[in-house]
Amino acid sequence: MDESKKYGSLTAVGRSLRISSALNPLVERLVALLPAALLRQHWRKALAFAMLARLLQKARAQRRLASRVQQPVAAAAAAPAAVKPNEAKPEPTWREILGREGTHVMAAYIELTVVAGASLVVTIIALYREHLQGQLYMAQADKRRWRRVLVLFPVATVIMAFTAQISDTCRDWVALRWRRAVVSRIHDLYFQRRMYYHLLNQPPSLAVPDPDMRICNDVKESCEAYANMMSGILQTIITLVLRSGSIAAQVGQIDRRWVLVPPLFSFWLLPSVLSLIDYAKLWPLWGQIQHHTAAYQQALSRAQLHSEQICMLQGERYEYNTLTWHLSQVLKSERGVAHACVQKDTIESFMFGELFPSGFQALGSFMSAAVISGAVQQSMRGEPSGLSVQQPRSDVLLHFSNYVRTWWGVVGIASTFSGLLQTMMALKETKASIHRVATLFTSMQNIREKLPATANAFQDVGPVISFKDVAVETPGGQKLLDHLSIEIVQGERLLICGHNGAGKSSIMRCLSGLWAIPSGIIARPGGSQLDNDEDGLSSELYYLPQKPCSVIGNLSDQITYPVRVPGGLPDKELRSWLRCVNLEYLADRAASSGSGRGSDAENTELQVSLGEHQALAIARLLYHRPRFAILDECTSAVSNQLERRLFDMARILGITCITITHRPALQELHTSQLRLTGRLEQDGRGWEHSLLKHREALPLVASRAASSEEAQVRLAEFIRSEGGGQASGAKPASAAAPEEQIIDEVLRRWPTSFARLRAVLALGLQARGSGFSFARRVLALLLGMRIHCDLLWQTWQAQMGAIAQGLSGNSAGVLSELVSYGIASCCISILDARIKCEGQLFTLDIAENASHELLKRIFNAAAFVGITRPGSQNYLENPMHRVSELKGHITEMGRVFVDSMFKCSHGLYTFRMLVRGLGPLAFASTPAYFAIYQFCLLFAPDFSFISRRQAQLETRFRMAHARLRSFAEPVAFSGGGLAERRNIEPHFEAAADFQQSSLRKVFVFHFIQRLFSHSNIPLYLQRLLASEFTRRNVPHSPTGVAPEVVVQGFLFERGIMYNEKMLQTLGGFMPIWRRWDGTNQRFLELSSALEKASSEVQEEDTAEEDEALPGGDIIINNLDLVATTDRCLARGLKFSLQEHAPLVVCGPNGSGKSVLGLALLRLWPGTGVQIELPSKAVTRSRPPLRLIMPAPQRVYLPQGSLGDQICYPGRYVPGSQHEAGMQSALEAAGIGYLLERHSTGWSQHCRWEDVLSGGEQQRMGFARVLFHRPQFALLDECTSMVAHDSEEGLYKTLAQEFKIVPITLSQRLCMQDLHHWELRLGLSDDATGWSLVDLRK
After folding, report:
1. Which of 343, 470, 1155, 1206 is the most exposed, fewest CB within 10 Å of its CB?
2. What is the pTM of this model?
3. What is 713-776 written as a DSSP string?
């Protein structure tokens, strides 16, 4: 009988289960050549020498670092000290950010205490479980003891898993509590003294261009990273103290020489290995990712806010290129990080790998094997040496039980250290986000210190506004006016006029406290107290800009802003205010839509025209009835009738008006005039004040209305005396709910979740050759994982061989197996890191292609405006935020896919061994485990709904902040900071509350997942199946058991672990799949809406339009103007746009002027067939810009250079032949000085909407039309902020010098001598609602 049958395994599978690495024979020969005895004698000296060398190296590196730091410090000390009156504060620490105001107590300290207590309980139970695991091997011969252990182990496991889940849930609560605390502290500073405005209007050293992204994204990432770190530190300290003490006590009983090995490994060898990772190279890359991601998301939000203007100017290709450039920068940074992290991932895999025996597990295995080897040698003194691994002995199970306890103790420390390292890595990866949050805090604190005290600058001397020797300067230090001295008492009416950039709005910024006053004193009602009471500002001073503050809310909120009336205004009162501005039909429209006064989350700005928006702002002014009203071109888009009614109603309510305008016609309504001359250098003042003379005295301003009821009575009497007040043709209509229809369409087209996933992935496979590349890279990943499985088994065989050699007392064999493990482990770590890197690059390529495809569909055939226009049948909420989520979603799917492939490949690799070792039991145990796990997963919540709802709420919070950033100045003028905070914080609270409720919902599910993780219930099942495997191979005998058999059972147990990991991965994949499905539906909703919007207008790919179009007319035949609410504004329009026949379109608000303009551009649904284009343009879905080009009142300035602003939708190329035409267009528009203002000329880049005044922006839009020289120019109130004399000059230049036919949209008939025809809309006495008048007759 051979030795294997005499002492070893009795079955073929047992004899074929190798317990030694295939590299071991070669390694044994190499070890034999080394002086092994000498090495065993002096290994402590070698270790001490290595530690000393490491300490010297570290001290040398610290000295180098200190010398680099001291050099600039010494240079600064040698330089003369500069006295800074307001020295910038350093960045606050995270503890200072989280600490309560005035204390050092951090928020959520109770939850952190629970985390620490739970970690203590988990560690104590884990130590008891390790004792039970040893007993599982020792008690196999004692049935009673065996049954007792079988009961105690699962009970302890359930308690430990439940306590650990409590700890993790408390950690998530800590992150949420910290996020609430940080957001609250930021909001306290952000909405104090209009900080939201000052952050955007500071020098580059203090300005923060993206506070909204930092509040909404960076705060969340930072809080989660710090919560994980704090939890990890607490768990690591508790685990390290308890487990190290337990291991030291256990090892010390056997061999005291090994007591210091785990601490040396943890605190010396581990930091030494981790110091090889170059984090100084990774931190800038992670910072670049945060920076480029924020810029990409901002560009997406900007494109969504200006979607209509972009499509009007046919700037889709420009915006597509801009967004894809931002996306490419994000992906370039992420690819750089993926390549740079290969070394880091290799080292982390070697030390903390979860898929194969890590460095910590190897420490436990080989140290325990060495300790057991010494113990066996001591017990065998005086007996024959050279024990065989196949020789049964009675003490094998005892030694192996000690090994198991030691091994699991070290593995527990390893897992804790691994978790801490992962949290530290996540913290370092979010270092850029943490820095951005700290910088935001620092900037707000420094700006708050920099803002001058208003107590000396403002005084309250009663109902009067006065300027005494006031100097007006921009935040950049440019002086506009000096020695401004003027007084406006209640009852006077002041008119302020001057050219663009002269300082008209700047005076109001100083009056409102937005700009600092370098010298002089301003008197105003309320004095300096108005800066601390924004709600009180609306009762004393009220500012009405040309572009009013956009209000998110219902109709009542539009009237009462910045104050919000609980429950809204009564319907009667609401209608009375709307009736004053001819907008009562808006209340009818809201009532007929079934929303009453409208939804609280309704964005009225997107549902009304600019004229209606200005009329709502006028009604808001009447509601607040302030002492003084500042009217800054606030009637540019309303009719002459409503404009004059505004001044009459203000006089009746006792409101004193200060009007900023370019129109001399308003002089007849004012008593004095302040004219800004722009001659500051000549006369040292830059202004002139004079009284206006009138043939008849102006009516006196009435006394101020004492109450809202009195104001309504006065206005009602005035409207009755005027004889009317309701706009015609304003019939209510029902509103549609398109998003539900789109969801139904998605579920109909893609009925299964797999079909929806395949449709999303298909977006990333649209590029040419991407399908072949996809298959090739998947096959490469599969081949790499096959090799990974072979190397994985070699590492386990090396560890098992070391255990067998240790149980036999062979120290040299343990050493040779350690070398074999080191070789295999290094190879598998490198392969593991490369596979993960290639998988990440693979998913980034798919994400890039999918994002490009989705952006192509968005900017195709004017589909963009179709999905962003409220009331459209294809309208979606926040479509661009869905695009920003696509990259993260696909990369997450790729990461989970690669991880799942790893686990499944390992499970399939070891399944053959499972079947051979257990026979039919393998086919029963695997489905039973999977069925039990699936049954427990029935408690899983609806992850699809949770992911969709959480994304929706977070998106609303981000959009509310993004909107405030876009309208910061109007909000600051209106004193609406507190109102905006009341609007923003409910969105944040809704997102936070839903996240908190979700934590409670998923607690049971995550507890079950934890219970079925490989170290809990599966470990229990592994031991049972391994016992069956041992029973099948070697029945228990009184002589004992051979080390080979015990180790084979342990190796078989490791193989079962991979099968259970595979089953757990497959079973736990369904909740992840449902969550993915919820996100996939959001992308397919966007794709489906884009397809429907594109099908309405098919866009042909045309060549460049450099050549001029031949002459021709645009014929409108039987065109009906229908609003988004299906309300018909005009019927059967019939006219033609002819060369040399300018047309002016006039009408009141809501009469259809903007609808007609969009119809001419073929951007309004259902109007294309009624508009005939010239023969060369008939093949296009939209008229080319060489035929008709719009100049909207809301000018869109794209991201880019000064040259891009002129060439848009083209792009400026430095040194091109068009520069002469560009300069000619700028000079003709009156802003040629912009080219000389900046040293870089056409290539100057900045945020042009912040640099240019409103008049300069409109001139820029006009210059854009002049440069492109279309046949027709659609001018929609595009010069309302330009001086009246300059306005007429611009129109004459357009028509006479550039030979462009103007099509003017206006509230009033203007420049009659420049137009041949007038199209009147909104006629109530005509059934068609329009008429065409020849102005030449």
Report:
1. 343
2. 0.72
3. HHHHHHHHHHT----TT----PPP-HHHHHHHHHHHHS-SHHHHHHHHHHHTT-STTHHHHHHH
